[in-house]
Amino acid sequence: MDDYDAARAAFAQWERSRTKAHEDVLRVWCYGYVLWYFYSQFARERTSGASDLDAAVARALERVYRSFPSVRDPDRFPNYVSKICRNVLLSHRTRRREAVEFTDWTVSVMPDEAEGHDLVLARRLIARSIATLPPAIRRVAQMRILDGQSYDAIAEATQRPIDSVRTYASKAAARLRQDPTIQDLLSDGAP
Predict the structure, then answer these.
(1) First to last CA, the chain
(2) Side-chain half-sphere CA neighbours of 46 within 13 A
(3) What is the C-alpha separation between 165 and 149, in angstroms, rounded?
(4) DSSP per-residue string spanning 42-62
(5) Cβ count within 10 A of residue 162
(6) Is the overall model pTM greater than 0.70, yes or no?
(7) For residue 129, what are the CA distances in angstroms to 91, 148, 171, 179?
(8) Does pLDDT of 108 surpass 50?
(9) CA distance linking residue 124 with residue 24, whole number of Å
(10) Which of 29, 120, 44, 146 is nearest to 81 (CA)?
(11) Which of 11, 42, 50, 73 could in theory staple to 77 by disulfide, Cβ–Cβ 3.0 to 4.6 A?
(12) Torsion angle, CA of 159/162/164/170, rounded to 10 degrees?
């Protein structure tokens, strides 16, 4: 992955010949580099799961492969791939900042015991707040927060793409955190 001279040579060779064999060699190097880049970046930060990593890798690879013909200087090809990866990562981080994670709610609302809190009451208050949400995100919030289902299971049950499920779940969490009842519940130290 770090043999940039070989990558430059592979790109120059593909540019001269435009054969499938040379393009395959170039694609293998790009695939390895993009994986290495994103695995190292995602290992350092908390993400919502493997699907985010897969989506970022797929976006970066699509952009890299699509841009082969537009690279003007073969000597800068590895830098070009690196720049695409960086831009995709920055875009991903910007989108993730807008999303609200609430996996701690999923785990903490479900246990059998809580220290000094009535879990039945907490669940009812959360369920009542979820009932006020728009129908599209209500079902996702119910399945994720109250039932503790995974994003994959919710996507399968609702017949929606997993990215949509994550977006709906984030929107539901953001709205629930603005609900005065939920704010009171959280400020009291409820589970």
Answers:
(1) 46
(2) 6
(3) 12
(4) HHHS--S-HHHHHHHHHHHHH
(5) 18
(6) no
(7) 32, 17, 13, 7
(8) no
(9) 57
(10) 29
(11) 11
(12) 130
Region for 74 from its dihedrals, namely left if φ exceeds 0, alpha if ψ lies in -120 to 50, beta otherwise: alpha
- List, for residues 9-44, the tens digit of each pLDDT value: 999 999 999 999 999 999 999 999 999 888 888 877
Look at phi and psi of residue 133 and say left if phi exceeds 0, alpha if psi is from -120 to 50, else beta.
beta
Q: Tokens representing 138?
A: 């209500």
Helix, strand or coil, per DSSP, at residue 111: coil
Locus of tokens 């043999």: 3
Task: Assign residue 83 a region (left: φ > 0; alpha: ψ between -120 and 50; beta: otherwise).
Answer: alpha
How many CB atoms lie under 10 A from the CB of residue 130? 22
